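Researcher: Next sequence.
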Amino acid sequence: MGRITIFTIEDCKFCRRTKAALTSRNIPYTEINIEIYPQKRTDMISLSDKLTVPQVFFNDEHIGGSEETLKTLSEWDEEDDETPYDRYVRLIGSQPEPTDRRLKIPEGSSICKEIDFTTSRTQEIFKFNDKEYTSLELSKMLIQNMPRESLTYWGVMYYNCFTGSSGVTALMKMFDLNSREDAMKVGLRLQRKHYLSHVCGDHPFKDSDGFYFRLQAYQTPAVLNSFRVWCAKVDEKPSVVINRLSKLWSQLESTHLSEDGKVDLAAIRNDELYWKLEEDVCELQNVHLKHMKEDQKKAFVINLYNLLVKYAFCKVGIAETSTDRSSFFGNVSINVGGCIYSLDDLEHGILRANTKHPYQLSKRFGIMDTRKNVALKSLDPRIHFSLNCGAKSCPPVVKYSAESLDTDLNLSAMAFCEDENNVSIDEENNELQLSKLFFWYMADFVKSKDELPAKVAGYLRGEKKLLLNKLIEQGNVTVTFKEYDWSSNNINAITYKQGDLKDRSISIFSK
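Model: Next structure:
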């Protein structure tokens, strides 16, 4: 029996769009994930002469990538005499299965292990009135039942907090306690375990209207993984931790896709599994960058950055203006090993070896900033082909490992430059049209604009490389830069505005 075969990677929006288009027409397909089965990447490249995904085959015939496949399906939609599914059955399904061994469905073990998302990452159990709660159950219960309001004291506004007396009342009801004194003891215990704290960290929990307290989840809204304080030791390798978190996010994404392959962020926020993500990402608080070797750190921070952008889009929203984007990347942060890093800190401070942001005057880590010690020792311009800031013009999200990092970055560079949306050549006008990434970070690649064509040629292959080298030899290559598409592949997103973090970052939790 014939089939449609799609070579994919896990977090590729174009792969999702293609699969969604087939599913909406009830057309079956077989997926070969080259991250799970990396040995199949060579087969995909040799069959299609392409590095990008998806690559789609109708039996032995290579159709192309997402754009070509969607065009074919649209043409099928216009047929009056048969449905797209009937056409699939006639042209593909009723034919013999593919004969090329490179299209064979992989067998045996993959490099990916199944991950259990049903159990808690911590073994800590809390007991109140003969009832036991895991850390996640307790955190969720507190968030859903404790009062939360904006209160002032000496002209200062304190967001998402409660008075000691209102907290005592809520705890009595929540845990069915007999007295306010018992509730205050519970509050003190929760404070010692870092589930709540005084808004300024000055006072123990007290049954009083004169003291304000706040749940840990609301204490530092700019820090994404502040849902709880992670006290357990992290025994696993950092790569295992970030891989598990990425898998958890991917499961949420794949569960909440629209018919056209867009990610429904509101549905993710309302998913029960999202609570687990909120807790599990706090494990990064005890993962230390200073203990990592260079390639380990580079791969880890790339994967971390790509995960955090998607997580932040869901949790705090998507910026729509350049000013709000600057605030988003400069302020939305993560606690890694007890140090706070914004998205800009991860990119420009660590990955770009503490190099200045293109539109800022100083380095991310100043001379007295101890975080400068975890910056990479040298700047590898290929990182720009690996980081995805959530925009459509960004490179696709790929999982990186220290063991194959150099090869993976080379493949990402070549795949990015292979795409006509990123690098295109107008032979008639001797024009090289490049992604805006090459404009913003030109200094990371070359010393002057005149050197860009030769540098880009090093990332190309085949006819495109030959054509660019020909233009370079002829001289007078004009370099222009394409507009950057900042739109995302999400729906039902919160809109992020500068200054929102103090009162909107945790508003996603249901009351």
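Model: The chain has a mean pLDDT of 93. Residues 74 and 292 are 49 Å apart (CA to CA).
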